[in-house]
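Reproducibility note. Readers wishing to regenerate the assembly model reported in the main text can use the exact inputs given here. Chain order matters: entities are listed in the order in which they were concatenated for prediction.
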Amino acid sequence: MNSSQEPIPQLFKSALSGERRSLGKLLTIIERGGETADTVAGLAHQKAGSAHVVGVTGAPGSGKSTLTGRLIDLFSKTGYKTAVLAVDPSSPLTGGAILGDRIRMDDLAGEDCFIRSMATRGHSGGLALAVPAAIQIFDAVGYNPVIIETVGVGQVEVDVAGTADTTVVVVTPGMGDAVQANKAGLLEVADIFVVNKADRPGANDARRDLELMLDLGHVSGLEEKTGYRPPIIMANSLEGTGSEETLKAIKGHAEHLKKSGSIKIRQKQRILMEIQNRIEILIGSNAKEVLETDLGIANIEAVLNRVISPAEAAKLIVNSILND
Amino acid sequence: MRNRQYRVILAKLGLDGHDRGIKVVARILRDAGMEVIYLGLRQTTGSIVAAAEEEDADAIGLSMHNAGHLTLGPKMTDALQEAGLDIPLVIGGIVPDEDVEELINSGVAAVLGPGASAEEVVSTVSAAISARDQA
Amino acid sequence: MGTEESSNLNPKETWQLKFEKAKLRDIPFETMSGVPVEPVYGEDLFPGQYPYTRGIYPSMYRSRLWTMRMFAGFGTAEDTNMRFKELLRNGGTGLSTAFDMPTLMGRDSDSEWSLGEVGRAGVAIDTLSDMEDLFADIDLSKVSTSMTINGPAATLLAMYVAIAEKNSVSPDQLAGTIQNDILKEYQAQKEYIYPPRPSMRIVTDMVKYTTAEMPKWHPISISGYHIREAGSTAAQELAFTLANGFAYVEAAIAAGQNVDEFGRRLSFFFNSHSDFFEEIGKFRAARRIWARWMKERYGATDERAMFCRFHTQTAGVSLTAQQPEINIARVGIQALAAALGGTQSLHTDSFDEALALPSEEAARIALRTQQIVAHETGVTNVADPLGGAPYVEWMTDEMERQAEAIFAHLEDIGNGSILEGTFAGIENGYFVGEIADAAYRFEREVNAGRRIIVGVNDFTEGDNPEDRNLLRIGAETEEYQLKRLQDVKSKRNQSQVDAALMVVTEVASDATRNLMPAIIDAVKTYATEEEIAGAMETVFGTYVERAIV
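Running the prediction on these inputs yields the following structure tokens for the assembly.
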């Protein structure tokens, strides 16, 4: 495998010095998972901690890539180097994926940003491990902000979007997007709403729908206590209107997180989530092995003889592992 | 069986807008279990190199229909070499048989002619990647 | 001129009256064996009668054969000029120009984008000087010229007007067509410069200009050809094309144009593919749908504004690189379908097009192929000879039904407007998605062997790759063109150029003014195509497509 021949510390070092190809390879290692991935994530963790993580999510065709492109442009004008992780669904049948719609920035010099596409399947450990680790690497090598772009349709994608510091939910008028977003649980995680294609009929209806839902209290519990109401921005990302306001809103939200202390809570929550995921995966991936030990065999026997139930057997095994 | 998920970049280099074939190829590779990063129309060698680095691509596929392959093919392999990227380049589209040798000599890994079947597309791309892996 | 259905005459008598007024070609209208045949068969509907399913003229090919319009263009303007003269000498009756990719995209030959593409797939035009060479020694008041260009169409039309003026030919004497169908660029061919809305404004300006100044010119050729080549089905080709036509009509009406005045100068361009009866049904349905919509929805009263006049080209995408000589048979069948479908002009593809640009020999065979259809088969004796056949009528109805379903969808996403629905469909990827789906479905069928393509997935013996004589265009064309451009730039008056470009930008930013006069003035200063495009891009912006698979 040619792409992992170089030793990890060396790859990491050249990625730190701005070598894009090494960063690209590190991200591949992360995606493949396993021990090597954990090593990379560990190295990254030591250096990370300063990037603001922005989630941008919305239905296919909502214009979120164009909006992300505009944001990168605006960030780079104020001296920020943006990294983008674009998460796209894989085919459930073949595991293959078409990761289209890489943001086009013909006017930007490539140095200002780094874009990586990631498919939802095909990494051991899944997105739940790969995304946080990728964020850490971007952060560690100096990208700030890190934008995570997802198609806001499935639970996994919503979870990913929800782990950002600031989550931007993009909706379009006329297709009942706001209602759909509510159903998908996106409203719960949104810190900023962008009504894209605001020149279209129905844009004001979409805005009204969102206001109404906010009035009814569909806001993230954390912010409610500290008096933050997600702004609704009317935008047309093809023409560029609304992107400056979105940028301002992101900065405003970051400011709010800092002032209210919520940023610490969010970071802690994210770490908690990641450890929890890792525990689940660790226990899950060891389950089969445990069943082949004496402890496992004895409990299987007991279930077969109807002495204990499968649920009781599982609890007994987990408890005895944890008590070791 | 290959031991990892192949990541392939597909792009149209230059002004040529014939994208029927490359879109079909994108779906063929996806259905063969690969991850395809389709960059779309009007790409430059620079944008393709940048994407190849960032995406850590295993292969790059370009489609050409405007008889510009003898200029643009070598231009792309030069750009890859200059960037120090050892990634196989596969060219498809309208390429006359007698131009294939010249393209291969300029560093193109394989050429897919008009009418290539889905199996040929998949096996050509896979073979180009595993040849590079073993090199 | 009304539809003349007022009197008590029955359809046949009405048709008879019109037919008798038509001037006929001086040949015997009988079979090869000497059996005389009627100009049309059937009782209910006749050619030249609304909704024109059976043809737009009462006497069809008995009066005039279709125009045999062969697309030509390669290398430098001088090379193409020689090919033009050759085609005219060979009995071709119209000139058709193919431009190279940089020209089509509004880029000059010296742009970094143009490297390797100058003069490759068509002729390279940078300045008026190239256009002067392209039409040198050709009397523009005598030929009908078709220019296949869209994004920078206004600039090329301006150049044509300017060289005519230099030769004392006034705009009203110029006959021809400019493709100028920008909507299908976003849907299929992808040769756009500016975003859709400003592009529509340029199209509308050109419609206004030609309506006022160039009565013999067709300002838009609404083209399904490229939609089909990109992989659509026959019904999608039909529906997307006619919907684009409706969109132009809605835009022109909104700009205050009279539907009868510009409507009669719209023309269409369809693909003729290999499924014989599907194609014939498509052509017949196109005429019927267009006439109905123009009359009933857009209020046209002049029947010429209801005519779906169309050019046809055989399906380039159907040509195979394997055993290329068998493409001659494919082209023959497709040309026959176009004739039976009642086309007004026809381009037949050269058999070597799946391999390279057409060689002179292959182009000659292609022209000969349609001459055989026109002069030997006898199909031109009788108008709509297949009309009334149950299968053909069913297919015509089926094409119409599928097209109407697509129109309904576009109206839905456009809140009642086809124009807005078309913009919305471009923006949300509807058109490109539908086309890509259809293309993939077809490829899968071929791949699975459920659909046989002779020479590709069956009957493959006999391919002989050594035995090919392909047209090659060397790098010298590019070098020569770059030198020419350099030369023109050094000789022109730069301050005149700058001033003229400034005016173009100024007019672009004022939607109430027409861009055409400003662009004509700019080309006369030898401003380049890219400079003029740039002058408008500052106002209009540049379009970048989302990469949808």
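We highlight two features of this model. Chain A touches chain B through 31 residues (CB under 8 Å). The beta strands of chain A are 53-58, 82-88, 97-98, 113-119, 146-151, 166-171, 192-195, 232-234.
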